[in-house]
Amino acid sequence: MKVLIIGPAGSGKSTLVKEFGAFLKSSSYDTKLVNLDPASEPIYDADLDVRKFVRTEEIMKKFSLGINGALLKSMDEMLEFADLFRISADFVLYDTPGQMELFIYSPSGIEFVKRISDKFTAGVFILDSAMVSSPENLISGLLQNVVISLRLSIPMLTVISKCDLMDVDVKKVISELGQKEGLLSEIMENLSQVFDYSTLRYRTIKVSSVKKTGFEELLSALRELFCACGDLS
User: Fold this and answer.
1) Distance between CA atoms of 55 and 160, rounded to whole angstroms?
2) pLDDT tens-digit map of 37-96
3) Buried b (16+ CB within 10 A) or exposed e, 211-229
4) In this structure, what are the phi and psi dihedrals at residue 37, rounded to the nearest 5 degrees?
5) 3-state secondary structure 66-135
6) Quick one: DSSP state of residue 10?
């Protein structure tokens, strides 16, 4: 199974790849860790690292670009090596760039994902627990989740990270939607249906890479995505 770990900058993607990958290996799964961020060195022993082929800092110098332009150009350059990243294992964890817009909105990012994907490819969208502690932030995060699934055409799991820092009661946050007033209340009420398009509707997966908790639940949910007997199929 190929698993793209996606989320906003600072949400804990790389740490999850490192610790969840270690958990899978300790559970006797053949597991590969892949760094797809051309601007950052991996914090784990990567089985495949895009920076061996494309480095954003070198792109900046070569094409006299700023950081944002260089990141986009890096995605264009990465396409030349996409076939090398179609690797197989029980689990292949792909650590995506901190700027998730590169995958979601750039044609090169979407094409790269298309080339490495197969019928057993899924995404894990990480939401920092501190970012979903209010109805506004939770709905905003779930909207991003839906957009990613639509643009990449892969099933997505919604995972709340950093639960060692803050434990969020998602159902309670959702129930607070009706307590807002004015235009904000109307907007959020109309958008609340996106909750039904996330896997939070079925179960709340909370992980802490620091305390190494929630990994069993994440593994179970990933397996159920492609299992006819699962409640997330």
Assistant:
1) 30
2) 999 999 999 999 999 999 999 999 999 999 999 999 999 999 999 999 999 999 999 999
3) eeebbeebbebbebbeeee
4) -100, 105
5) CHHHHHHHHHHHHHHHHHHHCCCCCEEEEECCCCCHHHHCCHHHHHHHHHHCCCCEEEEEEEEHHHHCCH
6) T
The CATH H-level superfamily of 2-224 is P-loop containing nucleotide triphosphate hydrolases (3.40.50.300)
| Alpha carbon separation from 161 to 33, 77, 113, 158, 168 (Å, rounded) | 19, 31, 23, 10, 10
Residue 211: per-residue pLDDT: 93
In the chain, where the domains are located: 2-224
Phi and psi based region of residue 203 (left: phi greater than 0; alpha: psi -120 to 50; beta: remaining)? beta
Q: What does residue 129 show for φ and ψ, rounded to 5 degrees? A: -55, -35
Instruction: Assign 7 to helix, strand or coil.
Output: coil
Q: Are 113 and 4 in contact (CB under 8 A)?
A: yes
pLDDT tens by residue, 157-201: 989 998 888 777 777 777 776 666 666 666 666 666 666 666 666
Number of CB atoms found within 10 A of residue 25's CB? 15
Q: Distance between CA atoms of 105 and 151, rounded to whole angstroms?
A: 8
Residue 48 identity: L
Distance (Å, whole) CA 33 – CA 48: 7
